[in-house]
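Retro notes - structure team

What went well: the batch runner handled both jobs without manual restarts.
What didn't: labels got mixed up in the shared folder, which is why I'm recording both outputs here explicitly, each with its sequence directly above its tokens.

Job 1
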Amino acid sequence: MISPGNIIKQAVLVFSTFLALVPTLFMIMTALKSNEEYAIDKLGLPQAPVLDHFRDVLIDSPFIGWMTNSLILVLGAVILSAVISCIAAYAIASMEFRGRDWLLATSTALMAVPPVVMIVPLFVFYTQLGLISTYAGAIIIYAGLITPFSVYLLTTFFRTIPKELFEAARMDGANSLQILWTVVLPVSLPAFVTLIIVNSLYVWNDLLIAIIFLQDDAKRTLMAGISIFQGRYNNQVPLTMAGMVIASAPMFILYILFQKHFIRGLMSGAVK
């Protein structure tokens, strides 16, 4: 028999899920409406769904170019951060050296620093180096912003790996890099998938860094492009919503493909 407490919990979960899905549902429904139908009924379901707005976004705007720029930044920043974080986390978790705990504490504390306070010094520094409106400059910034969290998550996960695995690999003659590649990485796949998804979402959805450090129109990212796209077509809300639907699709597909690993990584971090 279901207790009243469980019914209340289920009701709260259902209501919370509904609230979380409302913006997405509104975005999709609006994208399927014509301009005339949206002007008449902004909140109702589309009576005659149309796909013209999606075609206009993909063909009549530089949307593909914006998406390509965002993809370059995501791949560059996530890969660079993953390599650095993996090596750093392995050293902190498995090696004894002076300042190890201080290094981890400092890296973790950097997660509390808001990116906006670093904008002015970074912009002045990048201007002197000539890195404004360059992929390399933006990738370095994004990698620096996501690395503290990555080091913390991987260090926590690496410390749960039994020490006997490291000792057995050393007895077989493996060095530190070989242990990292053949022992640590295979058993840490859920943590890495979680890290990749979270960091990819951060870089993909960022607007602040993209607007300030990528001022060249040819290097405009997806979120920065949509903000200008929305201003240019502010009277065509369905067109803007169609662009947002397309922009959300890659990260949604990424999550669906690696959902099992992502949930396993979260649960491993919570339980262990």
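Job 2
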Amino acid sequence: MVESIRALRVARTGAVKARTAAASSLKATVTTAPAPLRERLETLSSPQRIEVCATMRADPIRLDNPLQGTKAALRSLSPRIAALDAEVAELDAALSRLVPKAAPRTMAQCGIGVDHAGQLLVTAGQNIERLHSEAAFARLCGAAPVPASSGRTDRHRLSRG
């Protein structure tokens, strides 16, 4: 089950990154769009902007016109964002079913949600007995302090291993 959670989290992370990239491209395209189109879209919220861009119609004969080319680009980006939103929601639903089955006691803790519990399961793996203490978990995560003192200076750094 933990391996399934790991695979779903990898897919979700990729979808979130792709959605962020598509949303950034849409925003950059709006920012550099011809003035009439830019003024119409800048005042809209992000979800409204995506909806409006999905309904745009570019004239395929006049794509050499910057306004028509920009409309075509925006219309191409908006369904991609919507599809990635749906993909993230689908993966979240799958994780919401699996993670509570794999770690019911962890999920019962205050402040622990599906994302945190899933990450803990993936980090610890199925060999939970190797985490015999908080220090062992910190070492596994790369957050264990390592002495890096010199002379009278007393300091620590994080383990790079």
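One thing worth noting from job 2: Residues 2-104 form one domain.
We'll revisit the folder naming next retro.
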